[in-house]
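agent> fetching stored inputs for the flavin mononucleotide docking request
agent> found them:
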Amino acid sequence: MKTIFIYYSYSGNGDVVADFLKEKDIDIRKVESNYKLSNILFFQMMKGGFDAARKKKPKLINYDNNIEEYDHIIIGTPIWNSRLAPVCNSILDKTDLSNKKITFILYSGSGEAKNAYKRLKASYQNSNIIILKQPKKYKEELEKLKEL
Ligand SMILES: Cc1cc2nc3c(=O)[nH]c(=O)nc-3n(C[C@H](O)[C@H](O)[C@H](O)COP(=O)(O)O)c2cc1C
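agent> prediction call returned; pasting tokens
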């Protein structure tokens, strides 16, 4: 089974996941966007949280949505305001996941992702969802990806 990890990362946790999965012969596609947050935490949380809540879909840079050669698609996203980070909304919007095995890897500060989990289970009933608590800091969280 050919697998790809398509992911977004704002502050590096997703990159740690990508490095781990690369070792398992999983192809990696990091998604870039011009979407930016303030360096000031308060404004970062306000804007990021608001945009996540209203399911904003920022423009992606050179996103390649061709996944024809893959059977298993793993989507990785940070959790903002308990929801998918806005760039992940754009990824889902631009990627046809029908007839694919789907896994979501959600990385969050608390290890929880209640709203995102509910939304993903509603839209992708057969998907597998794995939630990691800050894998950049807690490397042992990567153990949860062993069975992939
Ligand atoms: C705008 C914003 C909102 C966040 N909201 C949450 C949240 O609701 N719950 C949580 O557990 N972590 C929250 N976090 C923390 C991130 O989910 C966590 O640091 C994640 O690992 C970041 O992944 P990245 O480094 O790949 O961007 C938030 C971070 C940002 C920047």
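agent> quick read of the result: The chain has a mean pLDDT of 97.
agent> awaiting further instructions
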